[in-house]
């Protein structure tokens, strides 16, 4: 059936009307104080001096916003926040899910965003040209931040936290968290600086979906924080610089024959399937024969859960360097880290989702 002209142009008219409404509101508030903010692309953006309403788009943006204790400014959320995903910031701030959904993850929906009248849109996944285009389309300031990781791009993570703090006037909270992360990593490194350990393998890493025992990471940050040799670093050194999460084949795993294995809980069921469908694994892998297979929490959900990476580092350290970590109560350390990152200890919620850290050899 053919659409009449009114039907055909209704969406375009609605967007135009919403932009006009937003622009009129901006004109009414011309007396407000503004400042110039420089984002990760070195774009100079005029924003309100005091931001009261924020929409976060893209990987890790909402997470960084929660890290600087600014969830009360959220005026709309991506649909991914409503799914049954174990986000620590949702457990700590369940009221986030009471906000209206403004569209799909990473991109949102123009009409739904405009309806919430945000002072600024913060995003992590737009290039300079796309950010300019979105800002022009909606007549709303668009600020792009980076987020890095807990490994080789840690400075980018610090920059992202700091930038979010500056944008939302939460500088003190941002600086405190950055200092805490640096202090924790320094302490992990201090404890293991003069120690040696058997290499370990990490399998079952989730990355854009769940994966089995062959999914690994040559640069797994918790291993690097405690100086633990990573079995997966045996991958051809020519390829390693371009790798993060990667997949090996079963022959390679058997050839490596790791003495100790950690399993990312996100892929735990698939790892169990590996042992059930390929029974020879239990006879070929020393880590199984010696009961040295442990479960750690999953860290990759809509990009990295940075606090989980840090928690895993302490847990793995206690397993691999028992003398150096004998004074550490992992439950207390977990509570502490979660409180510093998201404002509350949500340990019990995460245990209900993932179980606790444990030796799982007899479960396989």
Low-confidence segments, ≥5 residues, pLDDT <50? 1-10
Please state the structural category. alpha/beta
What's the total number of strands? Answer: 12
Instruction: Assign a percent range to the helix content.
Output: 40-55%
CATH architecture of the largest domain: 3-Layer(aba) Sandwich
Overall residue-averaged pLDDT value: 89
* Major sheet characteristics: 4 strands, parallel
Helices and strands, in order, run as HEEEHEHHEHEHHEEHEHEHHHEHHHE
CATH topology heading of the largest domain = Rossmann fold
Tell me, what is the CATH class of the largest domain? Alpha Beta
Brief overview, please?
The chain is 43% helix and 12% strand.
Task: Kindly describe this structure.
43% of the residues lie in helices and 12% in strands. It is an alpha/beta fold and 364 residues long. Strands 4-3-5-6 form a 4-stranded parallel β-sheet. It has a 4-stranded mixed β-sheet with strand order 7-10-11-12. The chain is elongated and about 70 Å long. The N and C termini lie far apart (58 Å). The relative contact order is 0.11. Mean pLDDT is 89; it is low at 1-10.
Would you spell out the secondary-structure blueprint of this structure?
Elements: H1 5-28, E1 34-38, E2 44-48, E3 54-57, H2 61-67, E4 74-76, H3 88-92, H4 110-115, E5 120-123, H5 128-138, E6 142-144, H6 154-167, H7 171-192, E7 200-203, E8 215-216, H8 221-225, E9 246-247, H9 250-256, E10 260-264, H10 268-277, H11 281-284, H12 286-289, E11 293-296, H13 306-320, H14 330-342, H15 347-354, E12 358-359
Parallel strand pairs: 3-4, 3-5, 5-6, 7-10, 10-11
Antiparallel strand pairs: 1-2, 8-9, 11-12
Helix pairs in contact: 6-7, 7-13, 13-14
């Amino acid at each position: 059936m053919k659409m009449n002209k009114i039907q055909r142009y209704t969406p375009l008219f609605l967007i135009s009307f919403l932009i006009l409404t937003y622009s009129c509101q901006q004109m009414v508030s011309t007396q407000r104080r503004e400042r110039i903010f420089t984002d990760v692309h070195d774009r100079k953006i005029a924003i309100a001096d005091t931001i009261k309403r924020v929409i976060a788009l893209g990987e890790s943006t909402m997470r960084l916003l929660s890290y600087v204790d600014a969830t009360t400014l959220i005026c709309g959320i991506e649909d991914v926040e409503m799914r049954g995903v174990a986000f620590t910031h949702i457990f700590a701030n369940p009221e986030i899910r009471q906000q209206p959904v403004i569209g799909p993850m990473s991109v949102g929906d123009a009409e739904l965003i405009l309806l919430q009248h945000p002072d600024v849109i913060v995003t992590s996944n737009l290039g300079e040209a796309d950010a300019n285009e979105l800002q022009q389309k909606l007549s709303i300031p668009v600020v792009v931040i980076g987020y890095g990781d807990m490994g080789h791009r840690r400075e980018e993570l610090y920059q992202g936290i700091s930038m979010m703090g500056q944008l939302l006037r939460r500088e003190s909270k941002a600086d405190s968290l950055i200092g805490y992360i640096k202090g924790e990593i320094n302490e992990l490194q201090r404890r293991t600086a003069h120690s040696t350990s058997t290499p370990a393998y990490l399998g079952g890493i989730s990355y854009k979906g769940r994966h089995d025992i062959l999914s690994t990471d040559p640069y797994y940050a918790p291993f690097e924080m405690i100086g633990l040799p990573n079995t997966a670093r045996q991958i051809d050194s020519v390829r390693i610089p371009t790798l993060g999460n990667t997949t090996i084949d079963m022959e390679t795993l058997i050839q490596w024959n790791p003495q100790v294995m950690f399993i990312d809980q996100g892929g735990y069921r698939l790892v169990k399937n590996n042992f059930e469908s390929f029974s020879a694994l239990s006879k070929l892998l020393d880590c199984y024969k010696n009961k040295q297979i442990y479960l750690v929490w999953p860290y990759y959900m809509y990009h990295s859960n940075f606090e989980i990476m840090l928690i895993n580092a302490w847990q793995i350290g206690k397993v691999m360097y028992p003398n150096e970590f004998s004074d550490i109560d992992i439950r207390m350390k977990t509570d502490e880290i979660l409180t510093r990152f998201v404002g509350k200890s949500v340990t019990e919620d995460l245990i209900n989702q993932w179980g606790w850290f444990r030796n799982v050899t007899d479960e396989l």
